[in-house]
Each structure stands twice: as C-alpha cells, then as structure tokens.
C-alpha cells in the first residue's frame, strides 16, 4: 500500500491532492493547523482511503519531529511527501511591510518545508524507487512583481533546494519535483490580504484561474510517472495570465 504525507491539507491544493490520491486508494496523512477541517476531510474520504488527520504547524520543529516519530505503521511505508503548506502575507512594498510577516513566510515556506523533508527523507529512501517529494513553488520564484519580495524569494529557495536535493538523492530512487503554479483560486489571497474577502475576490474577478484540482492533477501526474522518470519542474499558468514588460521609473 502506498502512503502519502501532505502538508497544508485543510484547504486549496493540499485538500484537492488528498482527494485525488484517495481515488487511487493511497493511505494519506493530512496535516494542517485547523483540526475541524482535517476531521471533516478525513470523514469525507473515509470510504475511499485510510486517512490520518494530524494537527501540525510546520513552523514548530519539535511538533514535526513528534508527528513523524509517532506515525502509525500503516502510514510509515511512505512513498510520497507533498510540501504544500505555505502562504504569502501582504503585497505592500518591502520598505513598508511588516517584519513579522516576513518571519512567518520564511518559517512556514522554507523552514517548515525543510523540517518535513529532512525528517521524512529516511522513510522515502527506505521505500526506494518510485518514491517522491513534490514541493509547491510558484511562478513568483522565477518572476518578480511589486510586493512579491519575501514570498517570491521563499519560492526561489524551494526551486533551488528541489534541484539540489536531486543531486544528493542520486542513487536512492527518490524523485523530487518542484511545481510552480501561477494564478490559482483557493484561500491563498484571503490569507494574503488578512481575511479581506472582497480584496481577495478582486484578484480573480473576470479571470479563469487555475483550480486546486488542476494542481492536484499535476502532483498526481508527477508522482505516478514510471520509476525511471523524474519530473524536475512543472511551471503552469492559467491561460488568461501571461508576462508583462519591465517597469521603468521616469523622472518626468
Ligand atoms: P490555501 O491558503 O488554500 O492553503 C494553504 C494551506 O497551507 C492550508 O491548508 C493551511 O492550513 C496550510 N498552512 C499554512 N501555514 C501552515 C503552517 N504553519 N503549518 C501547517 N500548515 C500551514 O493556499 P493554496 O492551496 O493556494 O496554497 C498551497 C501552496 O501553493 C502554498 O505553498 C502556496 O504558496 C502555493 N501556491 C499557491 C498559488 C495560488 O495562487 N493559490 C500559486 C502558486 C503556489 P492551516 O491554515 O489549517 O494550517
Ligand atoms: C502564488 C502566485 O502570482 O500570486 O504563488 O505570486 S502569485
């Protein structure tokens, strides 16, 4: 039986990924901070798959250590880790934003991902060929935009760390994929704008953004390639999103 550990499964991409793998009957560890959401999802999927809801703040290294150490045997044969928990906070210019928001983004998007990866790697290596890690990067890790500063930099870290991991894991059979979506509708913008739903809705107004199911499908595809195939990176955007020219400040 294959098992998968998903961080940030209480919403958006993580919940959609749990639903996608439940269809295939994988054993699924769903994690996040909102316990009620985890239990509701576990209940929803209970007829399809074995699901373990685990309340976990990935910023808390001791909690990640305890969660990994306490994984029940049936979820121990880990084949996949999806480092999805993450967030952007604010989009004001670097010179006026809140330093606490920067701490939270670094602690969640980078350090949380590192804790889960390092602590679960031995189990993925024990599984060997066919195992895989998927990290949730972003187009913001490649392309800067005003207000992307630390968020974009955390995602650039994920991209480089994913590639570096591949070098170290050579010969173990464990694959690593960085998935880098653009505009996608979830709770992401509500979180980014501190719960301001109207501001979040405005981000998607008049667009057809990517959906959590689109991302879950990419994750599922990457992890289900033949054992000899490693998808290094997937960058995907909504068709309605594209690139723009550089901004130039003019004196007059
Ligand atoms: P959502 O806000 O819908 O989901 C984010 C998930 O992360 C939630 O389940 C949340 O759970 C979890 N999370 C946040 N902080 C923590 C924490 N400290 N510990 C554990 N879990 C945490 O956003 P998305 O589904 O859209 O985003 C998922 C990932 O994809 C993120 O890494 C995001 O940066 C990335 N991404 C999103 C894009 C978008 O446009 N939506 C585009 C590109 C990448 P809880 O609050 O219950 O802890
Ligand atoms: C989220 C996509 O463009 O809002 O990672 O940064 S974007």
Q: Name the CATH superfamily assignment.
A: NAD(P)-binding Rossmann-like Domain
What oligomeric arrangement do these chains adopt? single chain
Cα distance spanning the termini? 66 Å
Strand elements, count: 7
Give the helices and strands as they follow along the chain. Answer: EHEHEHHEHEHEHHHE
**CATH architecture designation:** 3-Layer(aba) Sandwich
**For the residues shown, what is the average pLDDT?**
98
- Count of alpha/pi helices: 9
Cα gyration radius (Å): 18 Å
Helix content bin: 40-55%
Residue fraction in strands:
5-15%
Quote the CATH topology. Answer: Rossmann fold
Total number of distinct structural domains: 1
Hetero groups in this structure are:
NADPH dihydro-nicotinamide-adenine-dinucleotide phosphate, 2-hydroxyethylsulfonic acid
Side by side, the strands of the main sheet go 3-2-1-4-5-6-7
Give the C-level CATH assignment: Alpha Beta
Please identify the structural class as seen in this structure: alpha/beta
What does this structure look like?
By secondary structure, the protein is an alpha/beta fold. The protein has one domain (3-183, 213-236): NAD(P)-binding Rossmann-like Domain (Rossmann fold, 3-Layer(aba) Sandwich), CATH 3.40.50. The protein contains 9 helices and 7 strands. Strands 3-2-1-4-5-6-7 form a 7-stranded parallel β-sheet, with helices on both faces. Strand 1, helix 1 (12-23) and strand 2 form a beta-alpha-beta unit. Helix 1 (12-23) packs across helix 9, helix 3 runs parallel beside helix 5 (99-127) and helix 5 runs parallel beside helix 6 (149-169). The longest helix has 29 residues, at 99-127. The structure holds NADPH dihydro-nicotinamide-adenine-dinucleotide phosphate and 2-hydroxyethylsulfonic acid (8X3). Belongs to the short-chain dehydrogenases/reductases (SDR) family.
């Amino acid at each position: 039986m294959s098992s998968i550990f998903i961080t940030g499964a209480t919403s958006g991409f993580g919940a959609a990924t749990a639903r996608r793998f439940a269809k295939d009957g994988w054993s699924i560890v769903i994690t996040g901070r909102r316990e009620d959401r985890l239990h509701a999802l576990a209940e929803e999927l209970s007829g399809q798959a074995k699901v373990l809801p685990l309340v976990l703040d990935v910023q808390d290294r001791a909690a990640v250590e305890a969660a990994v150490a306490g994984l029940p045997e049936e979820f121990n044969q880990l084949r996949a880790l999806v480092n999805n928990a993450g967030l952007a906070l604010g989009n004001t210019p670097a010179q006026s934003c809140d330093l606490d928001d920067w701490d939270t983004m670094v602690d969640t998007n980078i350090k949380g991902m590192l804790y889960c990866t390092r602590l679960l790697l031995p189990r993925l290596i024990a599984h060997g060929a066919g195992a895989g890690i998927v990290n949730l990067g972003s187009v913001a890790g490649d392309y800067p935009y005003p207000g992307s500063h630390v968020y974009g930099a955390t995602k650039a870290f994920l991209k480089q760390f994913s590639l570096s991991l591949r070098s170290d894991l050579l010969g173990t059979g464990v694959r690593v994929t960085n998935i880098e979506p653009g505009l996608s509708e979830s709770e992401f913008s509500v979180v980014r704008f501190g719960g301001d739903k109207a501001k979040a809705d405005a981000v998607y107004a008049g667009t057809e953004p990517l959906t959590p199911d689109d991302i879950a499908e990419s994750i599922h595809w990457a992890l289900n390639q033949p054992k000899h195939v490693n998808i290094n990176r997937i960058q995907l955007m909504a068709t309605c999103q594209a690139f723009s020219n550089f901004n130039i400040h003019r004196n007059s």
